[in-house]
Write a structure and sequence with these properties.
By secondary structure, the chain is mainly α. It has a single domain, classed as Rhomboid-like (Rhomboid-like fold). The chain contains nine helices and two strands.
Length: 230
């Protein structure tokens, strides 16, 4: 399905994330003599750290730029693919319904909150984390109240979309608690909560265009943290 009209921010984010994953693969992908390893395309931890992953020492080294760069990095091919698909679905629809400026604010504000929570969570450990899903959870949270405050809140499609958002949000949080060794749930929770708050308090304007055929089913996603460094 092509992106709906007027979604330049979503398009740009997806392009930047894709380009960064290509750089990751070049700098930290598996050796060419191991073609089977390219099916998962696990990126080496040292390459991710070089490119801007959050690490256990980020808080104490004051490398604040990592709070932003982490949103454009992914640990392996499935991680990149699932988060990109979730961003495509949620981001393109939110931007089309509520505008590019509002989407840009929600994405980076909630992503920053998620990064701070993740940084605190892994401080003084040998852990590290990458991924965009803190911001994606932020979009999900903002979407819930944005829809509830919109002119479409009584429409059947709007009620159905809200139910999907709540379902997938709860499911992914449960998965994060179940597989906490592999999923950075602190980032997910911080992104979701900050998104809910922004969706509730941001000035509400009439959305720029009707949903038409642009309503997209929401699918699950995760944000697996980068494996501990050697």
């Amino acid at each position: 399905m092509p992106l709906p009209v007027r979604t330049p921010v979503t398009r740009t984010l997806l392009i930047l994330i894709a380009l960064m994953f290509v750089v990751e693969a070049i700098l930290g992908g598996p050796p060419l003599r191991q073609p089977a390893a390219w099916l998962m395309l696990d990126i080496r931890g040292n390459a991710l750290e070089l490119l801007g992953a959050l690490t256990g020492g980020t808080l104490f080294d004051r490398q604040w730029w990592r709070l932003i760069t982490v949103m454009f990095l992914h640990a392996n091919l499935p991680h990149y693919a699932v988060n990109s698909w979730a961003l495509f679905q949620l981001g393109s629809l939110y931007e089309a319904l509520f505008g590019s400026r509002r989407f840009l604010l929600v994405y980076f504000a909630t992503g920053l909150c998620a990064s701070i929570a993740s940084m605190i969570h892994i401080a003084n450990t040998d852990g590290a984390s990458v991924g965009a899903s803190g911001a994606i959870f932020g979009i999900l949270g903002a979407f819930i109240f944005s829809i509830r405050r919109s002119q479409w809140r009584h429409e059947r499609w709007a009620r159905g979309l809200t139910q999907q958002l709540v379902f997938w949000g709860v499911l992914n949080l449960v998965l994060g608690l179940t597989f906490r060794k592999y999923i950075d749930n602190s980032a997910h929770i911080a992104g979701l909560v900050s998104g809910l708050i922004l969706g509730l308090v941001l000035p509400h304007r009439t959305p720029p265009l009707p949903p038409g055929q642009n309503v997209i089913d929401v699918q699950p996603y995760d944000d697996s943290p980068m494996p501990p460094r050697d």
